[in-house]
Amino acid sequence: MPMDLAVRTVGLEKRYGERVAVEALDLAVPTGRVTGFVGPNGAGKTTTIRMLLGLIRPTSGTGEVLGRPLDRPAAYLERVGALVDGPAFYPRLSGRANLAVLERLAGTRGGIERALELTGIDDRADDPVGSYSLGMRQRLALAAALLGDPELVVLDEPANGLDPAGIREIRTLLRRLADDGVTVFVSSHQLAELEHVSDHLVLLRAGALVYQGLLSSLLARRAATITARPEHAADLEALARIASDGGGHVRVRDGAVSAAGAGPAASARLNRSAHAAGITLAELTVAAPTLEEIFFGLTEDGAR
After folding, report:
1. End-of-domain residue from the set 219, 238, 262
2. 10 Å Cβ neighbour count for 136?
3. What values do phi and psi take at 194, rounded to 5?
4. Which of 8, 22, 97, 253 gets the highest tally of CB atoms within 10 A of its CB?
């Protein structure tokens, strides 16, 4: 496996009878980066993660995790931290004591205090887990995933149960891990947060790969929406005709003209053309597509 990949799969598949959960997945997760793993419910994200962690066997295909064969998870799992569905904790033990139990089971030592500090629960570490909120339990599960200073961290919906402030803290944590050279592979429905934190993106639909690569490349290849508002309402129809000449889908609404899907130079061209026609613009804005908009565009029926 190339040195710059922490995870690579070739033709990875999981079938349950006639149902295909994951289909011919060629996955490439670069080292030392945050890779967001997204797709609609039922797209195969959790199934893929479970195969990478050796929790279920692939029906077919091959792969490597941290340079070790996918069919020998015992050879690499000690270097991997994971959060899938959240582990069960002893409610009467403190958070710190629960982590000590997990540390002993894993045969590691010395990582508890760092994990508590990274996840922001060090001030509640000596309280019984039974008194923790859902968000606190999720933080403790993240702390458990960080025990042993893993080289690869695999997280399935780590922001579940967290409030907006907690989600921002998780975002900061993921970036800090990547900056320290840890590879982060994170599945999440919080698309806005993934847009802020991810370097790379893997997008699944119905078990098949739709996109894989730099997040910036995906965002750049989707055209922005231009909105222009003339100073005088009487110029609205003429402005719409000018916008139509630039291509894209043009719509007139609330005293403004919007052009979706136009090229990168369309806003400057529209401004020049409006000026040449004697139209003064009171407003001209360019809105880049969000990851959420691109996600729905790629995963809706018939889109690829």
Report:
1. 219
2. 20
3. -60, -35
4. 22
